[in-house]
UniProtKB/TrEMBL annotation, chain A:
MF GO annotations: catalytic activity; FAD binding
Membrane-crossing residue ranges in chain numbering: none
UniProt-listed Pfam families: FAD_binding_4
Keyword terms, alphabetized: FAD, Flavoprotein
Name of the featured protein: Glycolate oxidase FAD binding subunit
Superkingdom per UniProt: Bacteria
Residues covered by the FAD-binding PCMH-type domain: 1-184
PANTHER family associated with the record: D-LACTATE DEHYDROGENASE, GLYCOLATE OXIDASE SUBUNIT GLCE
TrEMBL record, chain B:
Native source species: Halomonas organivorans
EC number: 1.1.3.15
The name this protein goes by in its record: Glycolate oxidase
Pfam assignment, any one: FAD_binding_4
Organism superkingdom: Bacteria
PANTHER family cross-referenced by the UniProt entry: GLYCOLATE OXIDASE SUBUNIT GLCD
InterPro entries: FAD-bd_oxidored_4_C, FAD-bd_PCMH, FAD-bd_PCMH-like_sf, FAD-bd_PCMH_sub2, FAD-linked_Oxase-like_C, FAD-linked_OxidoTrans_Type4, Oxid_FAD_bind_N, Vanillyl_alc_oxidase_C-sub2
Entry keyword annotation includes Zinc: no
Cofactor requirement: FAD
Annotated ranges, domain FAD-binding PCMH-type: 52-230
Length: 367, 499
């Protein structure tokens, strides 16, 4: 494993980052903001209007700034390796409940926030944005601004700290993040129940109305894989009720990192992530839902397909969702926005980054 | 403070001729209820922060979205400010009318459009009451989690505007965590859909931005919330302490033991006495503080957690820990807490409710500061907290009929909020900034940060017609308020005149 990031000392590089950004804004230099560069495949290529793109690394701006397990809050700089942060929490029996995917040992906290991706526990625990309490953001003038804070509840001002989650670094440089963390569950059990996709759909709806300790549910290849997490009593009782075969311990981590055989990178067909209402049915010609992997109890479906992007997106949009292409080189990885919504995205970008220096084009063209 | 919009401090605001605006709106939205006579306007002059009053120029009560859109388009064209109001229960003056503005009342949008038990969602109009959603979901074993104390009356649209909380936030989150999708009308009358019935949506997370934006960016016209299965059981422990600081520490110890209670509330002696006198909940009136610790979930887990929480609180110095024997006693324990505000209201002609948050570890120290301030200002303060998430509700007791007491109460409140900020906290946990805490925003944020908020506002409402004077102060106001933050040795806005 490459441990180069891990060996860097903790350091506050706010000033150097701010200076570079201020200069870039003055020159109009587009910046490609990079942490561990593990999620480069997720999104469009950064493209400036005319000037050459420069890379701005956050890796030296790293370290946990405050962590008090009693408060259930941790704050760390953007370049802090995600693995290091998670290890520190684990020492105290705590965790990031949204299980962010890493996609590589070098993954950083900043990249996690910019991508805004969450793991198998998302439908039950919440997404990255649900656990962000505050940020420090460097704006185009190189100023370090603080929004939100290190408290559980805070409704002072607009919620910019959640707005930047998943914005792919296009609104400013997220320099530091404060997150709510939670205790690890006392008990855990993984099981596999052979059943059809339709049966899984029904059972999940019924179970969803009961207070069961389910924390992950993925259907693939004729079986529903479940994770139970909670107190020892409830996990044991649900395990007795559900039965089934034991699931491999590493199944959920492997799924989260998209390393199951389903995601075989040798497959030349594009990889799609469909985000849908949990129970939505797709009606798209040439698409067999049984060949897909249905994570998040059906709300996140993975697909390998040569289907035309427009056909796929039309079908998914009709069903109330959106489709993201994770294979590098896609013309539009993210579903295009409806015209009035796109207009307000443009306006927000123009207000916060008028010279287009923060990851321009990474999310959408012209943004 | 002077609550009225002050162009010198809040920015220029157009003032249109009332007769002209009335005639225009009558013509463009002929079927909409439009109030304009003083006696009709009077009931709308304040929200839940009743010490602040202003008579709106006009009150509009639309029945359908077409009327709302046309009204907005006309107000945008005429340059008339628009303040949106739901049930009017907000505690920070977020729906305080403007004398030169239209008050847009959304209370007629009170239909629950759909409850989908399989998807565990409810699609509702903004005027639907918070509690009505849980009532509609109850037949399916589901409920809507955020439960502000005003849930019987407050509307879900207002909850979104203020990002409302409640006693169960620590475990179940605020409004922002429980809203999946919002339909919005912009000031220009465009319809935006934010979020979706899936678990995410493409583009910026504007749904997060709208929650808590206090009607400054758009008008919320439809909301889809997530419903949760009712916990199998909920049990509540009441622990008494003879020292407030010990109770404060017990809160942290419970969390550190890996227990996440559904609710973890604290009351100090004055609040205990007030509640007991009013509700007769069986509270120990001699205790310096009590903790109410509710554990919910599956029976087996809850029993184990109750045992663990009891041990932790005893170890932290609790003199007595009682578990509610049955559902009736559990309801009674909570009734004391949920009625703490009116209970305190019986002890004093007036009270002023604060809403600061702090890191939990700062609780003993901030309590001490509040006790000192209470002495200095000669006003009693009862303390009620959502202790689990560090959200304090100090209640300042005063008599508005006594010369200068309201001003003293406001000044004391302002000092308490500043103590929260100094302890690393926030001036508002769930009530919002509104008009009430507009000056304290200058303590919470530096001018560069405020300027960024103004940029966000400009993206949605460049003419500043939506709820102007609320939520985000101008730099001029902060200069006047005197809470300038000197950044890197430079005054943040040297170009501004000082008075």
């Amino acid at each position: 494993m490459d441990t180069s990031t891990q060996t860097l000392p903790d350091r506050d590089a706010t000033q150097a980052l701010g200076e570079r950004i201020r200069q870039a804004d003055a020159e109009g230099t587009p910046l490609r903001i990079v942490g561990g560069d593990t999620k480069a495949f997720y999104g469009r290529k950064v493209q400036g209007r005319s000037m050459e793109v420069e890379t701005l690394s956050t890796r030296e701006h790293r370290g946990i700034t405050t962590y008090d397990p009693v408060e259930l809050i941790v704050s760390a700089r953007a370049g802090t390796p995600l693995a290091e942060l998670e290890a520190t929490l684990a020492e105290q029996g705590q965790m990031l409940p949204f299980e962010p995917p890493h996609f590589g040992a070098e993954a950083t906290l900043g990249g996690m926030v910019a991508a805004g991706l969450s793991g198998p526990r998302r439908p039950w625990a919440g997404a990255v944005r649900d656990f962000v309490l505050g940020i420090r953001m460097i704006d185009r003038h190189g100023r370090s601004l603080r929004f939100g804070g290190e408290v559980m509840k805070n409704v002072a001002g607009y919620d910019l700290s959640r707005l930047v989650v998943g914005a792919q670094g296009t609104l400013g440089l997220v320099a530091e993040v404060s997150l709510k963390v939670l205790p690890r569950p006392a008990a855990r059990h993984g099981l596999r129940l052979p059943m059809s996709r339709e049966e899984a759909r029904q059972r999940l709806a019924e179970w969803g109305r009961r207070p069961l300790p389910i924390s992950a549910a993925a259907w693939q290849d004729g079986a529903l894989n479940l994770r139970l997490e909670g107190g020892a009593g409830s996990v044991a009782a649900t395990r007795r009720e559900f039965g089934g075969d034991d699931l491999e311990d590493d199944y959920w981590d492997t799924l989260r990192e998209l390393r199951l055989p389903f995601f075989d990178t040798a497959d030349p067909r594009p990889l799609w992530r469909l985000s849908l209402p949990q129970r939505a049915r797709l009606d798209i010609e040439g698409l067999d839902e049984d060949t897909m992997l249905h994570d998040w109890a059906g709300a996140q479906r993975w697909l390998r397909s040569d289907l035309d992007a427009g056909t796929l997106r039309d079908g998914v949009t009709r069903a109330g969702g959106h489709a993201t292409c994770l294979t590098p080189g896609a013309a539009e990885p993210f579903t295009p926005l409806a015209p009035p919504l796109a207009k307000y995205h443009q306006r927000l970008k123009a207000e916060l980054d008028p010279h287009g220096i923060f990851n321009p084009g990474r999310l959408y063209g012209g943004l | 403070m002077n609550i009225h919009y002050d162009a010198r401090l809040d920015g220029d605001l157009p003032r249109q001729d009332k007769a002209t605006v009335l005639a225009d709106l009558k013509r463009s939205v002929p079927d909409m209820t439009l109030l304009h006579r003083e006696e009709d306007l009077r009931p709308f002059e304040c929200d839940g922060l009743s010490a602040y009053r202003a008579l709106p120029m006009l009150v509009a009560l639309p029945d359908d979205l077409e009327q709302v859109a046309t009204l907005l388009i006309r107000c945008h064209a005429l340059g008339v400010p628009v303040v949106t109001r739901g049930a009017g229960t907000g505690l920070s003056g977020g729906a305080l009318p403007l004398e030169q503005g239209v008050l847009l009342v959304m209370s007629r949008f009170d239909r629950i459009l759909e409850v989908d038990p399989d998807a565990r969602t409810a699609r509702v109009q903004p005027g639907v009451r918070n509690l009505a959603i849980s009532e509609a979901a109850a037949p399916y074993g589901l409920y809507y989690a955020p439960d502000p104390s005003s849930q019987i009356a407050c509307s879900i649209g207002g909850n979104v505007a203020e990002n409302a909380g409640g006693v169960h936030c620590l475990k179940y989150g605020l409004t922002v965590h429980n809203v999946m999708r919002v339909e919005l009308l912009t000031l220009e009358g465009e319809r935006l859909v934010l979020g979706s019935e899936a678990l995410d949506a493409p583009g910026f997370d504007l749904l997060a931005l709208i929650n808590g934006s206090e009607g400054m960016l758009g008008i919320v016209t439809e909301i889809t919330v997530r419903l949760l299965p009712k916990p199998e059981t909920a049990k509540v422990l009441m622990a008494s302490f003879d020292d407030v600081a010990q109770a404060g520490r017990a809160v942290g110890d419970i969390i550190a033991a890996g227990i996440v209670p559904g609710g973890l509330e604290m009351m100090d002696n004055l609040a205990i006495r007030a509640a007991e006198d009013f509700i007769h909940a069986g509270y120990p009136v001699e205790a310096a503080a009590i903790l109410l610790c509710e554990l919910d979930g599956v029976e087996d887990d809850v029993d184990a957690d109750c045992e663990a929480a009891r041990r932790v609180m005893e170890a932290a110095g609790a003199i007595e820990v009682r578990q509610a024997r049955d559902e009736a006693e559990r309801a009674l324990f909570w009734a004391g807490r949920k009625n703490a505000f009116p209970a305190v209201g019986r002890m004093s002609p007036d009270y002023y409710c604060m809403d600061g948050t702090i890191p939990r570890r700062a609780l003993p120290q901030v309590l001490e500061t509040i006790a000192e301030l209470s002495e200095t200002y000669g006003l009693r303060v009862a303390n009620v907290f959502h202790a689990g998430d560090g959200n304090m509700h100090p209640l300042i007791l005063f008599d508005a009929n006594r010369e200068g007491e309201l001003e003293r109460a406001e000044a004391l409140g302002g000092q308490i909020l500043e103590a929260c900020v100094a302890a690393g906290g926030s001036i508002t946990g769930e009530h919002g900034v509104g008009r009430e805490k507009i000056n304290q925003m200058c303590v919470q944020f530096q001018s560069d940060e405020l300027t960024t908020f103004h940029s966000v506002k400009a993206a949605f409402d460049p003419k500043r017609l939506l709820n102007p004077g609320k939520n985000i102060p101008t730099l001029a106001r902060c200069a006047e308020f005197g809470a300038l933050h000197v950044h890197h040795g430079k005054l943040p806005h040297p170009d501004l005149p000082r008075f």
